[in-house]
Input
Amino acid sequence: MIKVGVLGARGRMGAEVCRAVEGAADMELVAAVDQGDDLAALTGAEAVVDFTNPGVVMDNLRWCVEHGLHAVVGTSGFDPARLDTVRGWQAANPGGNVLIAPNFGVGAVLMMHFAQKAAPFFDSVEVVETHHPNKLDAPSGTAYRTAELIAAARAEAGTGPSPDATTTELDGARGTDVGGVRVHAIRMAGAIAHQEVILGGHGEIFTLRHDSMNRESFMPGVLLGVRKVADLPDRLTVGIESLLGL
Ligand SMILES: NC(=O)C1=CN([C@@H]2O[C@H](COP(=O)(O)OP(=O)(O)OC[C@H]3O[C@@H](n4cnc5c(N)ncnc54)[C@H](OP(=O)(O)O)[C@@H]3O)[C@@H](O)[C@H]2O)C=CC1
Ligand SMILES: O=C(O)C1=N[C@H](C(=O)O)C[C@H](O)C1
Output
């Protein structure tokens, strides 16, 4: 049995993770921690799952690394500087692998993978994400990561910048720029988590779309992360692509 602690346990995702862990035959939920609770409750855990918010996740993760606990992190907000900070903590503390996944949905991971593959073949590529209106951050971690992967794939292939003749615009009209890729964020009542990657060129437009219809959809990926985190080859892993064999 893998002893699991959950951070953000009363939140939308954390509560779903607690249910999934309790329903998994090979896991035991040993701590359900939320805002105001003592992190010391996590000391009996082998793996800690964090679904909190970008403002607090770094303090939580530092605590896990310093206590040698494996961490599976779904919270958004990880840019290259934050990842370097995590590597720094790990260099100073033995034990404890960290898996940070912008999205645990298998379909979303495949969308990112296919976007990366397709991006060098098209002149234009833009990312449009839609989320529920209670989401604190924009753009989503998934959209940010998708844009990073697209930018890296285009740079590696020597693809030029997307054409864009805009000279006059209202603030935000062209979204935000992540590594040269335009990312647009919509907040919509009734939505959960949705993303389109739109690629265009040579008289054709190719759209990749993924929809998370509920939060249970993320649970197979989260449980896979919990099962694998202790045996990952690197102390820090970003994304569950390698766990899926991609
Ligand atoms: N990687 C993935 O597949 C997915 C990632 N996410 C990400 O997960 C994160 C959480 O999303 P969601 O569940 O919707 O958010 P919620 O706001 O519903 O849940 C966050 C929970 O964390 C609690 N919290 C705040 N501070 C702390 C703290 N210091 N220690 C422990 N708990 C704390 C909050 O309490 P309080 O409300 O009192 O502040 C709340 O209960 C977001 O960053 C979101 O983008 C979401 C879905 C999928
Ligand atoms: O806040 C959410 O809901 C989600 N957050 C993650 C993100 O920022 O990408 C994952 C998914 O999109 C749902």
